[in-house]
Amino acid sequence: MTALSVNLNKIALIRNSREGNTPDVVAHGRICLDAGAQGLTVHPRPDQRHIRPGDVHDLAALCRDRDGIEFNIEGNPFAGPLDDYPGLMPLVLETRPDQCTLVPDSNDQLTSDHGFDLKRDGARLEPIITQLRDANIRVSLFMDPDLEQIGLAPEVGADRIELYTGPYAKAVTNQSADIESIFAAHCAAAEHTRQLGLGINAGHDLNLINLPRYRTLPGLQEVSIGHALTVDALNMGLDNAVNAYLNCLRGN
Ligand SMILES: CC(=O)[C@@H](O)[C@H](O)COP(=O)(O)O
Ligand SMILES: NCC(=O)COP(=O)(O)O
User: What does the UniProt entry say about where the protein is found (predicted)?
Assistant: First the structure.
């Protein structure tokens, strides 16, 4: 079954709108793991609008204490340091997640909206990927379903790619005629990735409406889901929301 990694950014976003520690990000991470999620994801950004460096340390410790649980840190290795944000690489090398997903976001981006251009960024990513892999951290690259670009991922040393699912999710929401061609492009990208010997993750705006189709993507190993799952948790409770997504991934 495809693994579910719950992204906790939005829990931290609510906490940061007041002083204090409510909602408690670590306690909510624990609820997700107790409900059966196979991992936790965070995407610290240099402006620290949601996940802060302290959260990354605390969640790394939570995941380390549990057998078989994956901790995934996402972010741009070229962004920061900024004020008291140390930059992605120092944070990752200090906290040693199981996986680091590199994402080409600029500092002021509202959210992730494109994958890497490896023709442009490949050479400067290579030493970063080597450093992460030398620290026993699996490296995934956030990518659009572009076969030529994905073809460059093994050359820079990546273990996996994470397919950017934003346009697929938007097409499902808008019931657009493009759904078929977009999903077919993702399937072709997944097949190409498999032939290259790399693993396949996916994420961005996946939800209970668009996931039943997306979970059938050949070879899909992991989805990271935050925004929609947190919104669903407002209605269902966090443990029920995690279970609803796990059942969806099982095909129930
Ligand atoms: C990499 C990705 O797909 C992002 O969706 C992400 O991790 C979410 O970031 P925000 O929560 O800051 O929008
Ligand atoms: N990598 C995608 C992720 O972690 C969560 O994205 P979203 O579900 O918050 O859009």
Answer: Cytoplasm
Secondary structure (3-state) at 236:
helix
Burial class (CB in 10 A: 0-12, 13-18, 19+), 39: buried
The DSSP string of 42-72 is E---TT-SS--HHHHHHHHHHHHTSTT-EEE
Q: At which residue do the structure tokens 């010997």 appear? A: 197
Q: How far apart are CA 100 and CA 41, in angstroms?
A: 9
Domain edges within the chain:
3-250
* Assigned token pair, 35: 């409900």
Residue 223 has φ and ψ, to the nearest 5°, of -115, 140
Query: Is the CB–ligand 2 distance for residue 226 below 6 Å?
Result: yes
Q: Is the CB of 203 under 6 A from ligand 2?
A: yes
Ligand 1 neighbours, Cβ below 6 Å, are 7, 9, 43, 45, 74, 103, 111-112, 142, 203-204, 226
Give the pLDDT confidence of 80-97 residue by residue, as tens digits.
778 889 999 999 999 999
Looking at the CA of residue 101, tell me the nearest atom of ligand 2.
1
What residues are labeled active site? 43, 74, 204
The answer to whether the annotation marks 227 as part of a ligand binding site is yes
Residue 60 has pLDDT above 90, yes or no: yes
The CATH T-level fold of domain 3-250 is TIM Barrel (3.20.20)
On whether 186 is known to bind a ligand per the annotation, the reply is no
ipTM for the assembly: 0.97
Neighbour-count burial of 172, counting CB atoms closer than 10 A to its CB (0-12 exposed, 13-18 middle, 19+ buried): buried
Q: Which ligand 1 atom sits closest to the C-alpha of 50? A: 12
End-to-end CA distance of the chain: 12
